[in-house]
């Protein structure tokens, strides 16, 4: 029996979703003519401004296109479900958003995305547009080597910092430096409680029996670091926070931004229960909380589970995180 | 009997049907080590390539180029750039000819291997589709019979079971990737099998 | 096997959730001393202003407490999961929020809520505080008689209109009139794709087999009007929109506000697919879309499914819907 | 043998244990026609009432009042105001006495019925807990034996199967409520059964 979804033809899901998004948010977003998979901010792109172009597979909403708007990303390239967009949408998005000061591509570190966006960069170069790339690599469960890690929910903070830098009209070198800096100080780890299922197959992508959880699972259902019996929320948070705090190496008195993220099917009540423990742990560690986001920010279709992200703030990142942004699915300030 | 543009169109058509038939099995393999969508990518890619090639005119190279573009734009993902580059390289070998000796399909297999390797920056043994393409290309260049090339690809795919992924989405699995097939290698062996049918003169 | 949830003791879920909410949103919300189940807006309540106090059972987050903030509700009374709060939290919330101009209680029309809030009103009267009540009754599937209908996701628009009226310092009579008017022009209908499960039982509250859907199901899992095979999204939307449009009786050229709401486990991709069809249907009906909200606004724990709400706007409601508000989980303007 | 404050404390203690034991069954009944939480409300309510009563001093009325407040503040929901009002009414009947004749428990049952009816504004036949309380109260006032009162409550609860809900959460079900028991009537019959044990002098 196919999994329970409110969709029509699974192959049309992404395009129908985009139609629904454009219908809901005409004041924020538009789609350039002849670029069906590029979504551009109505306000934001402007002459002399570095264009921040993000993108990746669909199924992570509000990541990526929900973060397109003034003060954050200028445009997004939209892929099929869990599939990097091909080069063309990235080129379309970049050309629609660029203001003569160069383009910064930012996306999660996945082999497919790297190949496609690299091809896009080559194509842009042929058009005389300079494009740089900063990969997000915040998923500490995915590799010991930071450079090989996946990019997951921390995207929202990392994109936000880079988007604020671009909105402040900083030059490409600076926006790139800030993006790398933001990424280096952002750590995420998640836990899955159920499989997602793709709209095209409507079957669980993997098998996670009831009663079990998978710590460190990726946002496409990539296997994580450990599978075991589902534990009470506080113990799950403790396992994740131990790892995040060890990785982050913050000093007492430092400040962080927190994101408690739903992987799709986990509702707010559970996220806030997690956050109660996150706040306790940060307090015990002597860390101050500058801002907390709670909700579905980077999902994995209908997967049940959650992730916790910490961004280790400094003065520069605090200023950028506080900078206003106005996106269809995310607003601040 | 040469390999003509009609033969190439027929080959793409067969690949599309094959990937559609294998879609769910490939997705299931990808669910174990990746994100569960490899069958979708291969089906969408080959169906789009087939449509593009069917609607294209010109030389073998023109058709390969149309297929590359069709596949890439329909899919993205990892498979998109890898197969698009493979088809572009194949097109270069085929050249602006309306037909070529069937035996040139050996160079086509090797060129596709080169394209995958160049785009993916992977080496054999990293548990990727290259582990099917590489032994097949070596067998093809070494003059092996079509069935032996097919077998080399299949054995290569089978051998990914014993490999620890060193690149791509399943790299982060570490030892947990052991015992599982690489879905891209399995689909590559199917693609190679269909090319070898054409090499044999059967399609 | 208990259902998959990130919680600790099920009986502690509501209080732990509140702790997580207060930790996440200290700038927006506080809890008065000795009132563990009352949540009050930091900004908003002020002398001379009618206090809008909302409330109900937990498990619908961000309804109710997510809508507490400047420009919307002044306070919320928090019940156990799917259980009206007792009178005391409502009294606590009212006393903390009231500014001498009276209190308006607004909540969904459920027998338990009516009994408890009525008791709260009697207690407030004894304290010399005038309290009136407007029940929300937007769920058109729940009864033919408007006055007997349930209040569901339309709450967000109805509360918003009343909250804007109160923020504009209108007197109690006017705020009450506007609340009734907003309720009368708001219609919702939902569809459930799976059961929710309570944190205390961790068992499906009812049986909805895979492959089936229930149209008109309530946000506590109360049975709906019709159960049948799960249909494609467009057909589900059409069934709901037919009912909403017939009920609303709008004329071509009229304008509406739209809410496509997740019942908890249904992710944004599916909601936007629904919205694509909603927008088509409104266009065909000659109705203009003034604003569209898409996301989890009124949930039913971990239930899969969605609801569609239309508010039939007039000039007054349009102004009130456009009035800014700044809540922990909902911002506008 | 009179009914003392100690007996009343024991009765609340038994009700708490009983509702804890029946919690999941009552939730399952409520899942069919309501929101699935009736067993939780009754358990939390009676456990809180028990704790409040156990910690209270004073007359029978004082204890009933403490139980009412404890139940209400722990629960809310529909059951909270209904049982709180029922206990307050019972307290009025019991009055500021340290003990009362056991036979006065008949008036207690009737007073609880009155409290439920007044608070809920329901009438018998509307498929609510009143359909257990009402026949039990009539039987109690008519001098029926404790077992007959219990049976009247149980039969009343059983009869809700044939009723269409006309009030409360399941009202909107219309004919779909037919064939299902009202959970509040089922739990009321249990409460009444335990009161009747006390009336019999067994607790
Ligand atoms: N760098 C690479 N070089 C060669 N093949 C690769 C590389 N990265 C991934 N692959 C192949 O791609 C397959 C996955 O393809 P697919 O599922 O379509 O893309 P994605 O990983 O983006 O979901 C893997 O099984 C592997 O064979
Ligand atoms: N107005 C009413 N009068 C009498 N009993 C009622 C009334 N409304 C509801 N009930 C009773 O309350 C029961 C449900 O209680 P409970 O599940 O605890 O509350 P809720 O409906 O708020 O979830 C129903 O089964 C019914 O017996
Ligand atoms: Mg993929
Ligand atoms: Mg894949
Ligand atoms: Mg309830
Ligand atoms: Mg109930």
What key attributes describe this structure?
heterotetramer, A: 333 residues, alpha/beta, six-stranded mixed beta sheet, 8 helices, 32% helix, B: 203 residues, binds adenosine-5'-diphosphate, binds magnesium ion
Description:
Chain A is α/β, with parallel strands linked by helices. Chain A contains eight helices and 15 strands. In chain A, a hairpin with a 3-residue loop joins strand 14 and strand 15. Chain A is globular, with a radius of gyration of 19 Å. The mean pLDDT of chain A is 97. Chain B is mainly alpha-helical. Chain B has eight helices and two strands. Chain B has a two-stranded antiparallel sheet. The termini of chain B are close together. The mean pLDDT of chain B is 95. Chains in contact: A-B, A-C, C-D. At the A-B interface, strand 5 and helix 3 of A face helix 1, helix 2, helix 3 and helix 4 of B. The complex binds adenosine-5'-diphosphate (2 copies) and magnesium ion (MG) (4 copies). The site of one magnesium ion has 3 residues of chain B, from loops. One magnesium ion binds next to loops of chain D. Chains A, C: Keywords: Kinase, Transferase. Chains A, C: This is Dihydroxyacetone kinase. Chains A, C: GO terms for molecular function: kinase activity.
Number of helices of chain A: 8
How far the N terminus sits from the C terminus of chain A, by CA atoms, comes to 46 Å
Q: Overall 3D geometry of chain A?
A: globular
In whole angstroms, the N-to-C terminal distance of chain B is 11 Å
Keywords (chains A, C): Kinase, Transferase
Organism (chains A, C): Paragemmobacter ruber
Pfam families (chains A, C): Dak1
GO molecular function, one term (chains A, C): kinase activity
Outline of the structure:
The complex is a heterotetramer, with 2 copies of chain A (333 residues) and 2 copies of chain B (203 residues). With 333 residues, chain A is α/β, with parallel strands linked by helices.
What is the topology?
The complex is a heterotetramer, with two copies of chain A (about 325 residues) and two copies of chain B (about 200 residues).
Chain A: H1 13-24, E1 29-30, E2 38-41, E3 51-58, E4 69-70, E5 75-81, H2 87-97, E6 103-108, H3 111-126, E7 131-136, H4 155-167, H5 172-184, E8 186-192, E9 212-215, E10 226-229, H6 233-248, E11 255-262, H7 268-284, E12 288-295, E13 305-312, H8 315-322, E14 325-327, E15 331-332
Parallel strand pairs in A: 3-5, 3-6, 6-7, 11-12
Antiparallel strand pairs in A: 1-2, 2-5, 4-14, 8-9, 8-13, 9-10, 11-13, 14-15
Helix pairs in contact in A: 2-3, 4-5, 6-7
Chain B: E1 2-4, H1 5-33, H2 38-54, H3 60-75, H4 79-94, E2 99-101, H5 105-120, H6 130-141, H7 146-159, H8 183-199
Antiparallel strand pairs in B: 1-2
The complex binds adenosine-5'-diphosphate (2 copies) and magnesium ion (4 copies).
